[in-house]
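USER: For my understanding, would you kindly supply a protein sequence with its structure tokens?

ASSISTANT:
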Amino acid sequence: MMKTEKVNHKVHNFDLLVTEPKENWDKCRAIGEETEFMIKDVLNTPTRIEVKTEDAIWQKTKNFFLETRNTKQDKTSGLHATNADWWSHAFRDKDTGEILRIVWYPVWLLKSLLERWIEEGIAQKRNLHNAEGYIIPINIMLRDLENAQRPLGS
């Protein structure tokens, strides 16, 4: 059983102090360490990662943009052209430039989700500057990533 004690917030800048770990701490720790090794393996092996950055407007609109075509060069680009294994979206603060969140997806999953979002009318096709692609609500992306499963036979 977890035990906590109330502390003086003004002195410690936090509210509760956990004095004994949860009963399942070892299990949580093992899962955390396993995940750390999985991420380390991805970063330490020849893995191709496509990195995209959302800055400024996402905080207002709560959307992100998936590029699929370069209209200036009239060719596929972004998600439809990548050879990467992983897709990374970094969300930066409009004022500080600090990265507030990074979301990683296997490319096969993001392509599958985009197809579904288009079919369901969630992804809205847009042209932004020299890029054509889709606007998707961030909350939908996070929800669907949480519920994602590898298709049978993959």
User: Anything to note?
Assistant: The chain has two domains: 3-43, 48-146. Strands lie at 3-6, 16-20, 49-55, 63-70, 75-76, 86-92, 99-106, 124-128, 131-137. Residues 109 and 149 are 8 Å apart (CA to CA). The chain is about 35% helix and 35% strand.
